[in-house]
Amino acid sequence: MAEQAGTIRIPITVETGPASNSARTPADSVSVPTTVPEPGKTEPESVEESDILPAQLPTATPVPAPQYSVTEDKVRTGDTLSEIFERNRAGLANIYAVLANNDYKAVLRNLYPDQKLVFKKHSNGELHSFEYWPDLLTKHEFIFDDDIRYQMVEREPNVNRRSAHAVINSSLFLAGRDAGISENMTMDLAAIFGWDIDFILDIRQGDEFKVIWDEYEIDDTIIDTKIIAAQFTNDGDTFNAISFTDSDGRSSFYTPEGLSMRKAFIRTPVEFARISSPFNPNRRHPVLNTIRAHKGTDYAAPTGTPIKASGDGRVVFRGVKGGYGNTIIIQHGHNIRTLYAHMNGFARGIGNNDRVRQGQIIGYVGATGMVTGPHLHYEFLVNGVHRNPQTVDLPEAEPIANKYRADFQRLASPLLAQLNDLNLFASND
Question: How distant is the alpha carbon of residue 85 from its chain centre?
Answer without folding.
Answer: 28
